[in-house]
Amino acid sequence: MPTLALVLLSALALLLSGLALLAELRGREAEARYPPIGAFAEIDGVRLHYVDLRPDGWRAGDPVLVFVHGASANLRDPHMALAGPLSEWPAEKGRPARLVFVDRPGHGHSQRGGGDMHRPSAQAALIAGLADSLGIGRAVAVGHSWGGAVAAQLGLARPDLFAGLVFLAPATHPWPGGVNWYYDAAALPVAGTVFSATLAPFGAALVAPTAMGGVFRPGEVPQTYAERLGLPLLFRPQSFRANARDVAFLKSEVEAAVPRYREIAQPAAVITGETDGVVYPHIHSHGLVRDLPNAWLVTLEGAGHMPHHTRTGAVLAEIAKVVAMAFPQAGWDSEASRNANETAEAVSSKAAAVSE
């Protein structure tokens, strides 16, 4: 029996070693196939990958938008949805906007950093540091899903820098229940590292098409979405584990953050899909409108978790409203922006919005 047990253990060790080697090779292939599309900056010892689009005619004091992507993604997600439309923003609607897209720590081509980097506040500190290093004095943060928790922390920690906030299908409040088991498994101290380096990348690749369908539902997944996103970057062991830790620990992080949300006084658009099946709009989006003193809710009928892809026009309109408030001299207060009376009405009617 001891001999049989030894043989089985050896076979298991061989199998795991083979899977780890194959996962590493696939990870290198993904990095070669989807190389960085931007530049790098070292912030507090962490190398961050970012794209900085500074249009012709942009000058200091003009609008700046900083985009924070969600879980299981990278900067390519908001970049593919919003960079084009915002870069082509008509001159008659206001001064051009500088657009900054960043890979959150551990995602895309950014390094992970320290052991507390699963915390939205830690990621927000690095992103704010990046904005400082780029000479940005004032900006609007746009956070999607998990990135919404980071946007909230940016608003809390750096109101001097982030003068407006846009939340897209945000995950910002504690919810009933937990997360999928594989996130918890990959987040474990030792076993999680082994799981992320062996079994997890292959299992994740198999279920990815179904998962993407759920994220976009009731809309269709754009035909080229996975390719343009560079989805295989997620299946690298270190990225899979970073993403799993982000998701597994988010509930306790937002639970601690909620009591401070009332301190976020910046204008904030909260955009949610009516049929979002990934996060609960009545908990997260309605919770933000309840907790933030100057927030308004935009519910998109028949939309899911990816409004920046499926309802781009509506998202652009809300971004324009926040930019008009954060940069009043930029000339974005056109028909797409909210006048003072409309803003006051939206803020004063929050109680009705969150009670629906």
List keywords for this structure.
8-stranded mixed beta sheet, 47% helix, globular, 356 residues, disordered C terminus, 8 strands, 13% strand, alpha/beta
**How do the SSEs run, as a string of H and E?**
HEEEHEHEHEHHHHHEHEHHHH
Please identify the structural class as seen in this structure. alpha/beta
Q: Which residues sit in consecutive blocks of at least 5 with pLDDT less than 50?
A: 335-356
Strand content bin:
5-15%
Distance between the termini: 64 Å
Shape: globular
- What share of residues is helical? 40-55%
Cα-based radius of gyration, to the nearest Å: 21 Å
Q: How many individual β-strands?
A: 8
Q: Taking strands numbered 1, 2, ... along the chain, how are they ordered across the largest sheet?
A: 1-2-4-3-5-6-7-8
Mean pLDDT: 90
Discrete helix count = 14
Mind summarizing the main beta sheet?
8 strands, mixed
What report would you give on this structure?
The structure is a single chain. The protein is α/β, with parallel strands linked by helices. It has an 8-stranded mixed β-sheet with strand order 1-2-4-3-5-6-7-8, with helices on both faces. The protein is built from 14 helices and 8 strands. A hairpin with a 2-residue loop joins strand 1 and strand 2.
Compact overview of the structure:
The protein is an alpha/beta fold and 356 residues long. It has helices spanning 2-33, 76-87, 120-133, 146-157, 181-187, 191-197, 199-216, 225-229, 237-257, 285-291, 307-310, 312-326, 340-348, 350-355; strands at 39-43, 46-53, 64-68, 98-102, 139-144, 162-168, 268-273, 295-300.
